[in-house]
Amino acid sequence: MTAVGVQPSAVGRGDVVLRADGLSKRFGGLLAVQNVSFSQYDGEILAVIGPNGAGKTTLLNLLSGVYRPSSGRLHLLGRDVTQEPMEARCHAGLGRAFQIVRPFPEMTVHENVTVGALFGTRGTTLGQARERAYDLLERTGLAAHADKEAHELTLLQDKRLEVARALATQPRVLLLDEVMAGLRPGEAQEAVGLVRSVRDSGVSVLFIEHIMPVVRDLADRVVVMDQGQVLAEGTYHEVTANPQVVAAYLGTEEGLHA
Ligand SMILES: Nc1ncnc2c1ncn2[C@@H]1O[C@H](COP(=O)(O)OP(=O)(O)OP(=O)(O)O)[C@@H](O)[C@H]1O
């Protein structure tokens, strides 16, 4: 595992798992996402960053199928999923974990993950779902808490549960929506380790994040958005040295690293 604070090694450019071509989303008179194109490669951890209101969440909602784009196309594992609803994208290999964790509070941790396994993949029996859930609790460091009710978990454990539930649908690409939010620095580093282990298990990860040290430690490549558009793309060091990116973040280096 890469030591924290060391630039992750670039991944080899394998197959494209996710490809956005000219995605746009209009809300009335506002173009929240404007002609966004990028590719994500197999095994890659890709960060999407940008100042408040840049369009990151709207982009994630376009990728996961919460919204249909006003124009543009999206390919998942080579298949055009532009018009497909969320469940179809989930079955096709796209998983999503949210910033606000919403487990079923009265169900146990194991039951919560079992539900994800049952409904996220077709043709899974209850027995298979329960077994997969135990395996995922091991992988996400929650095995000791399997029988606790979900409301008893700490925030970091909640985040682990959210990732376990998303993985229960057996995604090839996992979308993470600011999952580090609210964590203390030490906890965020633990979560960084968890995301790396997810990637090492063969799942490509696309994440939105405001915490720049997390982006630096985790991302193989970074897409920077501003005012709905892609402003820059490259390694963490490339994009943070880009004057246009610095200017977009309040015009100061401090703004970027705040
Ligand atoms: N459902 C909606 N209806 C109308 N406008 C919206 C809607 N969702 C987002 N917007 C607008 O689209 C723009 C982009 O918002 P979005 O939430 O995608 O940005 P963001 O980069 O995720 O911001 P933040 O970092 O603050 O979460 C903003 O101007 C926002 O007000």
From TrEMBL:
InterPro entries cross-referenced by the UniProt entry: AAA+_ATPase, ABC_AA/LPS_Transport, ABC_transporter-like_ATP-bd, BCA_ABC_TP_C, P-loop_NTPase
Protein name per the record: ABC transporter ATP-binding protein
Keyword ATP-binding: yes
Listed SMART domains: AAA
Alphabetized UniProt keyword annotations: ATP-binding, Nucleotide-binding, Transport
Domain ABC transporter: 18-252
Keyword DNA damage (UniProt): no
UniProt cross-references to CDD domains, sorted A to Z: ABC_Mj1267_LivG_branched
Domain of life: Bacteria
GO MF annotations, alphabetized: ATP binding
